[in-house]
Amino acid sequence: MSIVPRPRLGDIRVSKPRLAVFKFASCDGCQLQLLSCEDELLSLAEELEIVHFLEASSRIEMGPFDIALVEGSITTAADLGRIQEVRRQSKKLVTIGACATAGGIQALKNWADRSEFLRCVYATPETIDTLSTSTAIADHVQVDYELRGCPINRFQLLDVLRALLTDRRPKLPSHSVCLDCKRRDTVCVAVARDEICLGPITHAGCGALCPAFNRGCYGCFGPAQQSNCDSLVDWHLHRQVTAPTLVPLLRNFNAAAIEFRDCGDRVDPQSDLGQNL
Amino acid sequence: MNKKQIRTIEVAALTRVEGEGALRVVVEGERILDVQLAIYEPPRFFEALLRGRPLDETPDITARICGICPVAYQMTAVHALEQALGIVVTPEIRELRRLLYCGEWIESHGVHMHLLHIPDFFGYSNSIELAQVYPHQVNRGLRLKKIGNRLLEVLGGRAVHPINVAVGGFFKAPRLSELRSLADDLQWGLEAAIDVVRWVASFEYPEFKGDYEMVALRHAEEYPMNEGRIVSTAGLDIATDEFEQHFEERQVPHSTALHAWQLPHRSTYTVGPLARMNLNRDHLSACAYELSESVEMQWPCFNPYRSIIARGIEVVHAFEEALAIVRRYQGCSPARMSYAVSPGQAREGMWATEAPRGLIYHRYQTTSDGKIAHAKIIPPTSQNQRQIELDLAALLPQLLAQPDSAIGLACEKLIRSYDPCISCATHFLKFEIKRL
Amino acid sequence: HNNYFEFNLGPHSWKQFLFPPKLTVAVSHRDSDGWRFETPQASLPSYAFLGARACELAAIAIQDRIFLHGPYVDPDYKSRRESTFIIAVNCTVAAATCFCTSTNTGPKCQAGFDLALTELEDHFYVEVGSVRGAELMSELHCVEATDVDARLAVELQLRAKKQISKFLETEGLQSVLLDNPEHPRWDEIASRCLSCTNCTMVCPTCFCSSVTEVVDLTAENVLRVREWDSCFNIDFSYMADGVVRNSRRSRFRQWLTHKLASWHDQFESSGCVGCGRCITWCPVGIDLTEEVALIRATPSSNRTLPIVKTFSAVCVLPQEPTE
Amino acid sequence: MNADAVAVPAVDRSDPWKTWSVRIARLIRESETVFTVDLDFMEQGILQHYQFLPGQFNMLYVPSVGEAAISIAGRTNQGLLQHTIRSVGTVTQAIERGGEGMSLGLRGPFGRPWPISPLVETTATVDLLVVAGGIGLAPLRALIDQVGEQRANFGNVHVLLGARTPADLLYVDRQDKWRDQGIDVLTTVDRGNPLWKGHIGVVTLLIDRLSIARPHATAVLTCGPEVMMRYVARAALRRDILESNIWVTMERNMNCAIGLCGHCQLGPKFLCKDGPVFRLDEVAKYLGVQEL
Ligand SMILES: Cc1cc2nc3c(=O)[nH]c(=O)nc-3n(C[C@H](O)[C@H](O)[C@H](O)COP(=O)(O)OP(=O)(O)OC[C@H]3O[C@@H](n4cnc5c(N)ncnc54)[C@H](O)[C@@H]3O)c2cc1C
Ligand code: SF4
Ligand code: SF4
Ligand code: SF4
Fold this sequence. Notes:
The complex is a heterotetramer of chains A (277), B (436), C (323) and D (292). Chain B is 42% helix and 17% strand. With 436 residues, chain B is α+β, with helices and mostly antiparallel strands. In chain B, strands 1-2-3 form a 3-stranded antiparallel beta sheet, with helices on one face. Chain B has a 3-stranded antiparallel beta sheet with strand order 6-7-8, covered by helices on one side. In chain B, helix 5 packs across helix 6 (135-156) and helix 11 runs antiparallel to helix 12 (307-328). In chain D, helix 6 (203-209) packs parallel to helix 7 (226-238). Chain D is globular, with a radius of gyration of 18 Å. The interface between A and B is large, with 75 and 74 residues. Bound molecules: flavin-adenine dinucleotide (FAD) and iron/sulfur cluster (3 copies).
């Protein structure tokens, strides 16, 4: 990989598509995936102009944007307004990661008593602006494409960017993790090692990582399309796996994704069925 | 006395730092009234949401505090929990954990140096612009970072939020061939990293001497990563489980991050690469030590702008150490110590490790049925934050003649040299503007 | 135990070697004149399969019919297949999921091997199935098998056969499935099926695939990569106006009726060789033999074949005009 | 009429991924969403040797985007291959955007064509009823052209064309030529406009009005949306046309076009190699089953 020196970006103001990256409640891991495209980053920067990416650039331009990548979930009243503005300014809005597509791990507070949560971390919680829920971006504005995962897969990110640059629809497979396990010749950990694995109900995208490392999938890419969570959970209940073991598995990084949420609530003996939702 | 003009300088969004924050400075004439490093990153309540979770999920959940240094969270969490449960890992597991941490240091320092910080020294607003003029250096940086990522992927499954870290060890030990296949890249990386340090050391640095206490881990034999005693440049020397007797974290109104200070006087202190190197230079790997001697730098160093050099030297160290581990590796069996949660016994464990940005501390109480009862997490950034503000206050008087934008930029550069990770400051509050 | 082969099937079949999960089938380059296309050289690994069982030989024979004996030949499969040497093993024990006796594919290896071993106490009884097999044997220092060996081998094979407890009634199976597209059982299965694709992935005869584009940075070199796909995937039947099989019910029905019924029309045999892998590896324990038995037990009454049904009165089928 | 008595021109069956380089010589807009491309082979001499039968299709390939199955509509006067395409998704839109001069890949011809020779070779002359809906005319065009050229071989020939609006009617110029060749061409639209003087309503209504003199010697060839074809079949059967003389075209997701990928199955049929043209009695059983 090498690049030829060329005039400073500022000098060649051709109309390249304008990319912006926005962050809401999140860990930065998903936007970091953009910087982790080491081989592609510079050539990507030739195809589009990164005009708003606080983590990586001090150049801050205003909208409108052709492509907005949105990381993170909505947890504060201020962000509730900000996402509307981002949507208004952006032609295509792509949400990246479990926080943005399903509320992230912080959505666990949707099940908890908020004041108790605050007190647990802060001595004087009054000054904190926080909603009682963490919600996905799509709950608030229209989203053009969703990239799943905690974190997203950088190859999928590249594919989406390339697709948007060439004006085609990105290919985002919606099958289960199982298919990818088999494609990479991993022996099923659920059957062979009796691990509880969410692979059959989890959206593809990671390349079936966990089972390849001898552990069950914990669902970080969220529910697969038309996933049958109830059946898998019932199967385990039937085998004497208890609800307290199963519920936290459904309720982690994609806790608020509808399929995982409903299934978890159904089997949770202590469920107050999403009172905050 | 004349009524003086009140001047407010604001940097609405700090850039090229991880996470989101702002800076607000209030000046009256020559007097700095207030400096606030405001963190408006929405709070995510990790300590609260950990409660009641099965303890073996802790490394996976705490990783999500920060996508830049997830390994630091995982490492600190597993050690703290192993302490609670009385698990002792094998030397092989210990070594692989060090290797994993090397990967994260390489990656995280790589991001900070090449993508976030170096553009400052050339007046560019990002590394893509920098690459137009210094393509070789930027490409080299990207490749270094990529090798760090590769190491994390082989050992952890992926670079962000690795899936292979477990309480007790690893879910799966890497195959010999997998690790060995990294050797060539690591060798290249070692040499390239040395060149990077030489390059970086040739930059011009502002004169600035902080009057600090610097705190880091210190291990008897090795450069600190996963364990050690907590020591400071002022002579502190305590075991990690005494941390909370000496340090305290408090909420401040202008930030969603908690601030930490040292007891009994609530004095500030800093952590990070400079602190580590000032306190542990004798344990650097051969090349790294030699480099630390040959570059133009006074040790101990108290100039935060120069921490990029320390960071660079640590990358050299990480490459050299990773290479040695990879060459020594003979497999690791068992990959994971088995453990059972003994019923009826609640336990507590605490640990500190060295995240890329400095000392990180976790304490957990577990319930008798293997759940987390209580969690306390103190990341590096909340420990540095107060000191950053003080540094800014010290810097500002020399700058006041300049226009606001220039002051803002100069402040941002100082902040960036600390490599603050705002996402990390777990338990962050909302910034409220104080009107004068 | 000290035996090498006293187990049954591995988790993954030999399919992965002859019909690899990922394969580049076409390559495009762009030059100043536009796109140029190439078919990559068929790969040329030489495999020896050691330990293939009777059901797997049957499965390979089925895939041969698909990839070699249809109107189009898969060039890569062909070259892999031609260079494969098969040392089969006769099962001497059976697993609870085996039902090759129902599908008439085992447990004894009948054909399709170069050598077939039966593991006796301290030596192997070898049957030669091809010229290549005979050539190999002539270079090994083997002793002539005795009648005792032969008898022992048969006994062990019979033991395996007797251990098989699972049964699939194949009599009239095609119509049981094809005539019952609206059977209520499909709904019941759909409530349990995860549509995870495991059964199709482990099945030694399933052959569905999709081609995806793999683009390099410059977009000047594009690979067309064929990957295993499955009729359980929603996108599999995607069309511009909508997905055809947009329910787990319809996808499971497609799989089972294809495998056990319409396969006969396509390839003159069942698509099932009774290996039981799909039962073993189903995460929620769905067993096709049980499902088939249940459908068979209560044929559904609402056969909906609208066109024929509506018009059979009007439409008097004439004899076909001769060509 | 025997379903299989058709000669398929040879494709290299041992190299089914063989892709030819072609270029769009001209793009003709047929309607707002439909366009026709004239394709020329980059390599000399292929165009002349390339043979297809009406009803067959090619896989048109846009590298990095994908392939789409597109019927061969016919040839231009210079012999270029014509494909008429409705722009619905990634590949078809990419072709539309690429426009004239675009370089493409082409594999084919694939599939079972319309049964022209069996129809001609029957003892009595056959009357034809061709029914097309929307883009469904594309795969029938080459057939109608050929029938026009060999007009004497057939009895009455009716072509019924349906479209959503007058602007969606395809090949308007060509329709006159067909009429000149003695083909009865009727058109109908779902929604007219002030200038539209023709029929309004679904094509099946036209069938009901048609005089079909010899139902048992009439063959129906139809292509269009599946529902339309179902109604056409129903109407034809009602007029005593034999089920074995009705031919329909089916559509399913198509990936390899050579019967190896499994996508295009309809019951036991692989649409790509057993179809896309089917005799009604071959597929009637599957037409009514939801989600098959
Ligand atoms: C035998 C046959 C002949 C055809 N002839 C024509 C024709 O002459 N003119 C015309 O405009 N269209 C024709 N079609 C339909 C055409 O193939 C689809 O509209 C086209 O594949 C859509 O591709 P896309 O990438 O633009 O759409 P997308 O919606 O982006 O589709 C992506 C992929 O899905 C599959 N797919 C989607 N829709 C269909 C579909 N309707 N049929 C089959 N696969 C589909 C393909 O694999 C395609 O590449 C024909 C289809 C078949 C099966
Ligand atoms: S989805 Fe996961 S990786 Fe991405 S920002 Fe949220 S916590 Fe981080
Ligand atoms: S296997 Fe599951 S939990 Fe693991 S990385 Fe993939 S989607 Fe995430
Ligand atoms: S359908 Fe099941 S039992 Fe039959 S061959 Fe396939 S995997 Fe084996």
